[in-house]
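Reproducibility note. Readers wishing to regenerate the assembly model reported in the main text can use the exact inputs given here. Chain order matters: entities are listed in the order in which they were concatenated for prediction.
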Amino acid sequence: MSLQSYCQKPVIRVAPNTNITEACQLMEQNNVGCLIAEREGRLCGIVTDRDIALRVAGAKRDPDKTLVKDIMTPDPIRISVDKDLRQLTAMMHAYHVRRVPIVNGFDTTLGIVTLDDLIAQLGDEMSEIGKAISEEFPQGNA
Amino acid sequence: MSLQTFCGKRLATISPERSIAEACWLMKEKNVGCLIAEHQGKLCGIITDRDIALKVTGEEKDPLTTMVQEIMTSDPVRISVDKDLPDLVSLMHSRHVRRVPIVNETELTLGIVTLDDLIALFGYEMSEIGTAISEEFPQRKA
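Running the prediction on these inputs yields the following structure tokens for the assembly.
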């Protein structure tokens, strides 16, 4: 299974020179917890709501004067769209990340996949398996 | 399974009259994404890193002079320690929350349980079940 199926939701992109006030507005308007920073069409960073809480509010920086590039995680862990689900979960485990940008051969971000996406999918599959088992052995429903 | 299992770990509490700067410091120090606000030993609010990013930094409020009580979600969804796991799951589902404080009869917070805790527990149980099945039918390992 290719990672293409996780590239359906829009990626919210931001230029690394955007200030944090604008970045917050983007997160709020799009109801997302993280933004992808791209420079010349290539992934260069990722910034989360937690980064903003701890590295801006917590560090007493001015959000108008602080830029995304000042607080983002530069060169974040990413995965090629050609890889599969198993490689993705191994990567999340090894690097302790719960969000992974999916990129093409030019390092352009095609999507972002989160642990929550994987859990939701697994939940659906488990539910289907549960139904299949109940129908196979209907007496087990008693 | 009693909810007592989820009590006692990773609980960070703060007074609603503390500043956001202090709240950030506490989140960083304890490595948590949310704090429980307690007033006279009773649960009165909950505040997350996302709340701080969007409602403080995003609205250009000063973290030194803004208080936790101005930003927190007051009277958050909670669950009594006497309830059980299915009660908790249906509460999370119906109220669309992923973190639930666990309280005793005097509204004192004993712990906080997150969707992540439940997923980790479920993953562990599934792995145990998988092992049990493999051992029951060893020929399937081939």
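We highlight two features of this model. Residues 115-136 of chain B form the longest helix (22 residues). The interface with chain A takes residues 20-21, 24-25, 27-28, 33, 49-50, 52-54, 56-58, 60, 63-64, 119 of chain B (CB under 8 Å).
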